[in-house]
Design a protein that fits this description.
Blueprint lengths: L12 H7 L6 H9 L3 E3 L2 E2 L11 E6 L2 E7 L9 H4 L3 E3 L1 H20 L9 H14 L2
Antiparallel strand pairs: 1-2, 1-3, 3-4, 4-5
Helix pairs in contact: 1-2
Length: about 140
């Protein structure tokens, strides 16, 4: 089975996610689907759902949420360049992910680390303060 005869091909959602390299194993893909991290056409689904070209998938991967459209169907895991031909990410999704990444970076830069570690006297003062506060 190849991506050329996609009209005839029937592939489960968990197997397609594995073949498109969103997850390392089919069991991880199955857990993500069952956990509600994958939505098929804006609805929760089951791992056995048969995928169709043109369907919209919403994937939550760590900090990121991607919205992709299925362009091709394959049940075989191949190289990353070939796997990327199976789908395309929407422009809104790309922009939203870039904006959120920029926000996380600026928030992290705003939290400056302390200039130095506390010395022995500072640690005693901290301990004394905590004891007074009942912490």
């Amino acid at each position: 089975m190849t991506a050329n005869n996609a009209d005839e091909q029937k592939v489960r959602l968990d197997k397609w996610l594995w073949a498109a390299r969103f997850y390392k194993t089919r069991s991880l893909a199955k857990e993500a689907i069952e956990g509600g991290k994958v939505h098929y056409n804006s609805q929760r689904t089951k791992p056995g759902k048969l995928v169709e070209t043109g369907a919209k998938l919403t994937l939550r991967l760590g900090w990121q949420e991607k919205v992709v459209i299925i362009d091709g169907i394959s049940d075989r895991r191949r190289g990353a360049p070939e796997a990327q031909t199976l789908y395309h990410e929407t422009e809104d999704s790309v922009k939203r992910r870039e904006d959120l990444a920029w926000q996380r970076k600026t928030m992290q830069a705003a939290q400056l680390p302390p200039a130095r570690r506390p010395n022995k006297k500072d640690r005693r003062d901290i301990r004394r303060f905590r004891e007074q506060q009942g912490i």
